[in-house]
Description:
about 55% strand, mainly beta, seven-stranded mixed β-sheet
Amino acid sequence: QVQLAESGGGLVQPGGSLRLSCAASGSILALNAMGWYRQAPGKQRELVARITRGGSTGYADFGKGRFTISRDNAKNTVYLQMNSLKPEDTAVYYCAADLGTFPFRSWGQGTQVTVSS
Length: 117
């Protein structure tokens, strides 16, 4: 199994920046990819960014040019750098791991990001 420990959420001003971290432990050799999702009140959970084992990245349209996903393989940690934050970015952000074996996905506990003046 893979366990995910998130940190970095909080309250920020519009236009500000925030860096989320997600440290993975456990059966990390089973990881195919890791990513970040978010869920705002009344909305479905949506993909924010994803990075594969080989380092390929992908972003939702709303994050392109503002968000950057990266990894530190030595620390088994994935980061999400969020710049130029907007109030509509307010959501619970979840770290996720895509696994090559059952149960195929592992989730972090979620961290609240609030963008408000």
